[in-house]
Amino acid sequence: MHRDVERVLYTEEALKERITELGKRMTADYQGKNPVFIGVLKGSFMFMADLMRTIDLPCEVEFMAVSSYGNKSETTGAVRITQDLDMDIENRHAIIVEDILDSGLTLNYLINYLNGSKPASIEICTLLDKPERRRAQVNPKYTGFTIPDAFVVGYGLDFAQRYRNLPYIGILKPEVYQ
Ligand code: 5GP
User: What is the pLDDT along the chain (178 residues), one digit of tens a residue?
Assistant: First the structure.
């Protein structure tokens, strides 16, 4: 375990098992629909890569990038799209793939923005959900794990751009970010 990590919440094996379950559900739910999976960079890159391997459907993969956190562990509420979609999602079934849902401000903004393109449907798949900190109402259809209010890193999630490469999800030692 990395010395800055206090405790491992989900091992590589636990993540794989849960993601396979999510993929099976989505494969059943989207039969015949040719959905577009939209990963939110950078945090979702590892989740997206593993999730897509469990999806047994004709589908497309897109990425968007938003800036929200900077180098701090608290959101400012300001969301800016720094990379937009390459395709038109009008009349398409869209699934936003996110690493973690916290205040909900980022996804609330993204859903409103993407709804402007008139998709046939839009749903959220988040690996982690921290419902205690919600400030905007967002209801993910697919959630990997509901977690307590702690700052987590690994499996794509960073602190100041570090720790994204850890293969597990762990709670960062508070002294690292305080
Ligand atoms: P929201 O807009 O829901 O507050 O924030 C979502 C974004 O905040 C995530 O995509 C992620 O970048 C960041 N975030 C929220 N909680 C955590 C956390 O515990 N660890 C890390 N690394 N990022 C977090």
Answer: 899 999 999 999 999 999 999 999 999 999 999 999 999 999 999 999 999 999 999 999 999 999 865 555 556 666 889 999 999 999 999 999 999 999 999 999 999 999 999 999 999 999 999 999 899 999 999 999 999 999 999 999 999 999 999 999 999 999 998 8
Question: For 148, which DSSP code?
Answer: -
153 CA closest ligand 1 atom index: 22
Nearest atom in ligand 1 to 99's CA: 10
Residue 19, ligand 1, Cβ within 6 A: no
The 3-state DSSP class for residue 160 equals coil
Residue 108 Cβ < 6 Å to ligand 1: no
Write down the pTM of the prediction.
Answer: 0.94
Region for residue 131 given its phi and psi (left: phi exceeds 0; alpha: psi -120 to 50; beta: otherwise): alpha
3-state secondary structure of 115: helix
